[in-house]
Amino acid sequence: MKTQMYEQLGKLLEKYGPQELGKLCQKFVAIGFRMAGYGHVVERGVQGVDVDAAEEGGPKYAIEVKTTTKGSVTVERKDIEGLEMRKRDGYEAVLAVLRVTRFSDWIFVRADKVKLGSVFVDSLRPYRLCELEERIRPFIESASNEHFDGTMCEGQKYLDEILRQKGIGQQVS
Q1: What pTM was estimated for this model as a whole?
Q2: Which of 36, 97, 115, 130 is the most buried (most CB within 10 A)?
């Protein structure tokens, strides 16, 4: 990730804390998929798989988003079960991970290769979906840059409005 994005995420982390940063990043991922041309995008604020993204006649992804400032993320049974349910509908199960450290970047991996529990981010590298990463990363970064000021002021409320404006389905409970 570029230095600007790293610094912006650091400010969001400082203001909102790690759990809220994860939710904000989840919304940046959804916006990134829409910006990349995916016609069907759903972001779930609380329950279920975090983001669904599908192209007409193309791939369909069910994405669980994880962010961390440490070397590992926690993959819970509910994460895997939610992804398994989406696989039944033809979605590829994906884990999107961002370690918020200098010189790190989003990695997208096949979720069926991930074990439950604490997982070292670096151990996910062999399972990367490189084409998807290359396509989506610039758009996530653009979404973060474009909506940073509004997010700093209003957090999720601001991003929920952007999701609505972009026609991204939202499910909150």
Answers
A1: 0.94
A2: 97
